[in-house]
């Protein structure tokens, strides 16, 4: 398990449930700090989602966090500060909502030392944060599941498409060769027939 700032940047799937019913899935980016996120969906826990108060999570949250995943806004303090505050408050993970549509790589600042972070941190795009906010504001019970599927070394779909392309080329070449052979045979027949008429 990596700690500090050595994590690889990975895409993280955030599956949601609203009142126990499976709902939307969002995609975020894991931080360079904190613990790694499980790669298999079956190993990922379904955990209650809570909105941070204050929203930026730059100070001690007023709400109690009993292993909840806490959703916070980006800004006003460092990413690592938010993660540390969330961790100290009892959160099991922190979802940081970006203030832009695009995703952003969460890195540690130079000479940063406060990196004893043992919970995962994920950055979500602004639109995903707005959707989660709407779910929570409806008074519904919202839970999330975080996991980061590893991309296989060999993509079966790409291999299949490659085989199809090669097969198409081979078939076209065979058909072309067969057609040329048939054309040569027909031409030979015509020449023999013409020669026969000329010699009558």
UniProtKB/TrEMBL annotation:
The chain crosses the membrane at residues 159-178. GO terms for biological process: membrane protein proteolysis. SUPFAM superfamilies: PA domain (SSF52025). It holds the Pfam family PA. Its main location: membrane. The keyword Protease applies. One of its GO terms (cellular component) is cytoplasmic side of endoplasmic reticulum membrane. Keywords: Endosome, Glycoprotein, Hydrolase, Membrane, Protease, Signal, Transmembrane, Transmembrane helix. InterPro entries: PA_dom_sf, PA_domain, Peptidase_A22B_SPP. Residues 57-132 form the PA domain. It is a multi-pass membrane protein. It is found in: Endosome membrane. GO terms for molecular function: aspartic endopeptidase activity, intramembrane cleaving. Belongs to the peptidase A22B family. Intramembrane-cleaving aspartic protease (I-CLiP) that cleaves type II membrane signal peptides in the hydrophobic plane of the membrane. This is PA domain-containing protein. It comes from Camellia sinensis.
């Amino acid at each position: 398990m990596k700690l500090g700032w050595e994590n690889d940047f990975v895409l993280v799937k955030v599956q949601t449930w609203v009142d126990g019913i499976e709902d939307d899935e969002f995609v975020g980016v894991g931080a360079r700090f904190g613990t790694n996120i499980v790669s298999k969906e079956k190993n990922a826990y379904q955990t209650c989602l809570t909105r941070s108060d204050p929203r930026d999570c730059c100070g001690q949250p007023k709400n109690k966090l009993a292993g909840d995943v806490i959703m916070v806004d980006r800004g006003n303090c460092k990413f690592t500060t938010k993660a540390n505050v969330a961790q100290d408050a009892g959160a099991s993970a922190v979802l940081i909502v970006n203030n832009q549509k695009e995703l952003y790589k969460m890195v540690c600042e130079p000479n940063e030392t406060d990196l004893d972070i043992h919970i995962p941190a994920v950055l979500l795009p602004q639109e995903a944060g707005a959707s989660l906010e709407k779910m929570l504001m409806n008074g519904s019970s919202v839970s999330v599941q975080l996991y980061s599927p590893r991309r296989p070394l060999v993509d079966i779909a790409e291999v299949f498409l490659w085989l199809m392309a090669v097969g198409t080329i081979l078939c076209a070449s065979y058909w072309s060769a067969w057609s040329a052979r048939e054309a040569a045979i027909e031409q030979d027949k015509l020449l023999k027939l013409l020669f026969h008429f000329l010699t009558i």
